[in-house]
Amino acid sequence: MVTCGFFSIISGSRRSSSANRAKGHHKEVSVMEGTRVFSYRELRRATGNFSPDNKIGVGGFGSVYKGILQDGTLAAIKVLSAESKQGIDEFMAEITTIADIEHENLVKLYGCCAEGSHRILVYGYLENNSISKTLLDVDDCTIGFSWDTRREICIGVAKGLAFLHEEVRPHIVHRDIKASNILLDCNLKPKISDFGLAKLFPSNMTHISTRVAGTVGYLAPEYAVRGQLTTKADIYSFGILILEIVSGRCNTSKKLASEERFLLEWAWVLHEKGELSRLIDKTMGKDCDTEEACRYLKIGLICTQGMAKLRPSMSAVVRMLKGEVDVEGENISRPGLISEFMSLRGDNGDRLKGRNVSKDSSCTMSGSGNQEDSLFSVDDATTSVATMTFNSVYDDR
């Protein structure tokens, strides 16, 4: 009885601490300059009482609804579920990271709601979903992506990342650049979304030691193993994204032959054979500029080199993509291949099995930054496990 009472006190103390922290964060949101605070009633009205008909996406931490605000503005309303593992701190991180910055290739945060137990983010509505849904999902793809469109998407995302890495003070490392976090507006202009994992990066630091968070398949191996974060982790992820955009396929796929299953590995094999053109999405037909597409694939390989210090800055990548820097003579070293750090099985691989598995080709993970917590088996790479991020404000897979 005494023991039960003791744990009751501890539990009550934790609940009280959590409640006090929530109140503190609500007060912080209320006074945060540049952040509009919506009432829950207003957002409920905007979404037709969160009608299933208005649901446009679902992820590991809740649902996203299309809504019409009081002034007639269309919005994407991201509602974190009460059972969500995304805590108040992550909710606040997303607000504080993006509230005061604006760029044509970043999603626009209209405001938020932190009323009672409700945690809601309100973003600008983007008509054409995510790259994951619109370009890479062969079962649901309704838009034909020309080479010109793919080129502009690559350049747009690179510009957005260069802005975060080099222009914003302090710099920002996104930590979860992936196809489902790149949204497309009515003109297919890309917008980087989901800043729940973003880290502020002071310019006087060489790296940040932090728990590992991101998505396997896009995760830089040196960050996954050592937990030492730099902007080069985002650049690695962006390199994977370029390969996906040019090839029109996901970074991992069980449907393909074993040698082609992992996109980066297969791209490197083809590069060594001088056959990168085999990776170009055939659906583009004769309209594709094969030479330029192969150059983009090489840039993807340059961004994913095994040694982080060899990867270029994002502003350099923008220049490469625009053709202002010649990459033909570039000596590209071997990439950091996902299979090499995932083939060493750690406890985390066993812990992931059976948890919230979906048909996506990547899995989201978090760890402490030590080696044991950061290694996965190859089998785990082909499932989706939402443990740290909301997949996308439009990704409903």
TrEMBL record:
Any Pfam family hit: Pkinase
GO MF entries: ATP binding; protein serine/threonine kinase activity
GO cellular component assignments: membrane
UniProt entry tagged with the keyword Nucleotide-binding: yes
Residues binding ATP, per UniProt: K78
Family per record: Belongs to the protein kinase superfamily.
Protein name: Protein kinase domain-containing protein
